[in-house]
Structure formats: structure tokens, C-alpha cells
Amino acid sequence: MPLLFGTAEFNEKEHLTIGGCDTAVLAEKYGTPLFVYDVAHIRQRARGFKQTFNSLGVKNKVIYAGKAFCCIAMYKLLEEEGLGCDVVSAGEIYTAIKGGMSPDNIEFHGNNKTKEELVYAVEQGVGTIIIDNFYEIDLLSEILKGKDKKQKVMFRITPGVDAQTHDYILTGQVDSKFGFDVNSGKATEALEKILADEHLILQGAHCHIGSQIFSAEGFLAAVEKMMLILNEWKNQFDYTVNILNMGGGFGVKYTESDDPLEPEVFVKAIVNAVKAQCELLDYSFPEIWIEPGRSIIAEAGTTIYTIGSQKVIPDVRHYISVDGGMGDNIRPALYDAKYDGFLANRISTEKPEEVRIVGKYCESGDVLIKEIDLPPVEAGDLFAITSTGAYGYSMANNYNRNVKPAVVFVENGQDKLVIRRETYEDLIALDCE
Ligand code: LLP
């Protein structure tokens, strides 16, 4: 059985439908590869996080990590759902504002924000800048002094937690390029420096322990570590945070063997851990912010490809090529990420055999699915890869001068083009003679 998410199902024509839209029709209309996003699923995920906080009576902000996937329509959707956004470049700030995101709901991350980017953020009224290092404290302070402005900030702390999970991207451990390290005392030094700066209004502390995390344990360890240091700072400097930002990283399902917790479970675990620590340490309960990216958008996205050539090497392997690959999904090549896929234009009862799904890029590493059982397929069949919504389009590239695919949002039987497919003219638009 294919792994179907959200509103995905097969219709009477045996075509995959998402959001009530026939993907074979969408493929015809927009071409393939095509990213199809199930808007109802995005909304459900966004609400899942928000409503859990609200039902627990906890002041919160759910800040979508735009790096997972963003475009103007996505920011509009986030605004509708009452989410903020986390950006990591001036380009993301620009897109968010163009998408109607209120600047106050934007938080700006990054380990090497340039002076131009910080100036831009301040001028645009970005709500929170998350300071990552000493260089940035000085740079931002200098910019604010020049403009005679004040800026709400938080600072990023690496709590020294190794989030033990399956295939994730660690960031909270001591040896990380991000944030101020607690163990060496750098975080405390940063706190003193920020508090002493009249242009910086410190709102609280942030940490992000990694990505694609499947259990609550890493978050619980991080809460404990964070509350311990916050309590030290309360005793030493009489400083109490208004906001504790626990970052993102909540895991999602890519294949049958992935078993992530529901967003609600993560939120409850974090809230309960903060409550317990606050009671233990007699610390006043802070507002809690989180920054989910993947867990809001991954499962909502499906990529539709058209099957082309096949190569059978007897007793070795059966290759099936699709019309996309590492240009629209670099994750298998980069992280050895696993995905699930299936025929989207018919249901076959023929005997499946093990095949490898590869892309059209001029590189042997351009593999989308290393091993999958599929019934016999033909050129022109549609192949769907599920759970491609996060870090697929956002990491897309023009390798071999292939154009980037279109992206459509589907909901209640309506499809809406939100990013058009690139053209050959787009490919040479920046070239100078
Ligand atoms: N907050 C911060 C500070 C982050 O660095 C990240 C991700 C997030 C939130 C969102 O994490 P999420 O909830 O999406 O896991 N390209 C990689 C993922 C890199 C994640 C970078 N930071 C991938 O394709 O798996």
C-alpha cells in the first residue's frame, strides 16, 4: 500500500488525487516534475502546534522555519493561520514581507548575517533578531547606534545536548558553528554584553538541537539544560527571560519505517518540562516559542514525475528514470535520505519487482530511491514521491541547466499555481555577454 498523507487518495480513474485535484490533470496542465502541496494538511499541522499550546493556556508563538519551503503564497497562508516565520537571509525577509507577513512576526537567524542584511532587517522592522555570536553583537549595536534605534533580540545558545535520533542534522552539541556555548562560559559573557547594550532589548534565549528528531528526550534534555543556565543567570544578574525559544526539528514520516511523534505530543512534552523546571527552580514561567519547518510542510508535499527510460542489467539492477532528480530533490544524494513512491496514474496488480528510481542529471549519484518494489511501468506513467514538501524545492538547483519545477497548492478541488515552472529564458536571464 502506498504511503498516503493528508487528503491524498485514488479516484475512480485510479489516479492519485490530492486536495480533491487529480494529479494526472495537474501534470498535464503544469508539466512535470511538479510539486503539489496539500493546503489542508499544512493548515492542520500549523493548527496542531498552535492549538496545543493554547489548550494548555501557554503564551506561545509558532514560527515556521521558511528555509523548509517558502514563497509568497506560503507566507500568505502562514499569516492566515497566525504563524510567524523564521528567516535566515535578507532574501527570505524580502519574500516574507512581499507575502504579507507582518515584520513583527519575523525572526532573523543566522551565524553570519552580513552588515547589509542586518541593516535591511532593522529598516524593515523585523520583530526579533536572534544574535548568534560576538561579532554580531558589535555589528548590530553599531548599526542601531547609527540609526538611534532599539531592537528586540534573543540570543542563540548551544546547550551541549546531543539529540540522539535516527537521520538528523545536529546543531545543539558543543562542537557547532551556531550560537554561544554554555559549557565554556561564552553564553554568560554574551548575556552580560547584550544586557549592557542600551540598543539591544533582550527578550530571551533560543536553542535548536537538530532536525528530524523522533523522540521528546532530546528536547527534554535541552529544556533542563536551558532552565539550569537561565536560573544561574537569574541568581547572578537578576535577569529573567520573557521568552524561551526551543527551536524546531520535529520529525516527520518519509517512509513506512519512520515513526515520528505527533506535533501535539512534542508541544505537551516541552511545556510540561518547562513547567516542572520552573516550579523546581521557582522561575517565572516564560512564553514558549517553537520553530517547526519540516513538520509543517514535509508531508504536505508530493512530487509528480513522468517516467521515461528504463535500463535492465540482467541479474544486477533495473533502473527507472524520471524527468527530475537531484535538481528538485537533492536530499537523497546529500543526506542519503529515504523516500517512498508509487505509480500515480493507475493501480497495477502486476507482480512488483525491485527497481532503482533515478533522475535525469548527469551524475551517477542522482538517485531518488535506491530500492523500491514496483509493478512493470511504461514511459509516460506518472510516478509520485511523497513527503517531499520540506527542503526539496527550497534546495532546488539548476544543475545541467534544467529548469526548476512549478509548485501548485491544492485545496477543496481547486489548484493554484504558486511558483511557475522556470523557462529557458529564466536560465539565461542573469548571463552577461
Ligand atoms: N530553527 C532553526 C534555528 C534551524 O536551524 C532549523 C533548521 C529549524 C528551526 C527548522 O528545523 P526543522 O523543523 O525543519 O527540522 N536541509 C536539511 C535541514 C537543515 C535544517 C537547518 N535548520 C534537510 O534537508 O534535512
Explain the overall architecture.
There is one protein chain. The protein has helices at 23-30, 39-55, 72-81, 90-98, 115-124, 134-147, 186-195, 217-237, 263-281, 294-297, 331-335, 424-428; strands at 9-10, 16-18, 21-22, 34-38, 60-65, 84-87, 106-108, 128-131, 151-158, 180-181, 200-206, 243-245, 287-290, 301-313, 317-322, 341-343, 353-358, 367-374, 382-386, 406-411, 414-419. With 433 residues, the chain is an alpha/beta fold. Helix 2 runs parallel beside helix 9 and helix 5 packs across helix 6 (134-147). The termini are far apart. Mean pLDDT is 96; it is low at 165-169. Ligand LLP is lined by residues 65, 68, 86, 109, 169, 171, 208, 211, 247-250, 291-295, 331, 335, 390-391.
